[in-house]
Request: fold
Amino acid sequence: MTGPPADVLVLRALGIGDLATGVPALRGLRVAYPAARITLAAPAWLAPLVELIGAVDRLDPVDGLHSGPRRGRYDLAVNLHGRGPQSHRVLAPLGAPLWAFRNPDAGCPTGPEWRPDEHETARWCRLLAWYGAPADPGDLALSTPPSVPAEAGATLVHPGAKAPARRWPPERFAAVARALSDAGHRILITGSGGDVALARHVADLAGLPGSRAVAGRTGVGELAGLVAHARLVVCGDTGIGHLATAYGTPSVVLFAELGPHLWGPPPAHPWHRALWRADLAHERQAGDAPHPALAALTAAEVVAAAQQAIGARSPASHRML
Reply:
């Protein structure tokens, strides 16, 4: 390749939190190559969030690594997906120079070394810096969706998570929702389409009307709008917590075996409270039970952290409370 690339393909074929933690790296690419067309290979359902980044020109919809990016003429391929070898090999057929972590087994003999103990956001910024494109790990903000939701100012309680280890017991989420409701919060129980029954169960346990359980009724764009205008977000280590970080919305995020030093909000922002029992991180999870580092957290701790997060609300906050 001679001169700056005109067409760049970036692979980040994962979920909401993964996309959000990759935003600084995507913005770093845009700054490095302002005239390039940047294509992001990611799941189609993330399109409303991709539009809020401001650094991506086109979405190439992919289903994880099962259906790699469409063939095309690219001057540069950037692997923001993983350490390889599978993700490296998905990009190899494009025939473009590859920015990726070093993995000789995948035909990538150069590049920085992977560090397992590195925060996810810092990891991809370090990758870009190695190739001469610096990125700011703190550049996490997303644009606010244009429509103000009818439920602006609500407190969002999000009991779901992809992995059983990261699912705090619904009874405790309900206890938190009930305590916050008693303190004057308007509660919404959010979640994906697979969380409908869980959200209704939490609402019922909390003594809330079933209409306050909105899981499965909000697309990812609508969810972003709710978070951007929320009073507070309470959740496990899952995508909505990263949206709270992106919008400076006060949050309490509960962590399992992977702690906030790897996936958490910026520790310098006191309006984000990350709760974790680090002393239990190396304990083994039993079946589908929550990981011990998560199960040890109490509802009272979460309610106290919620009060602290709201008290330290971001000075840049624009939410309607």
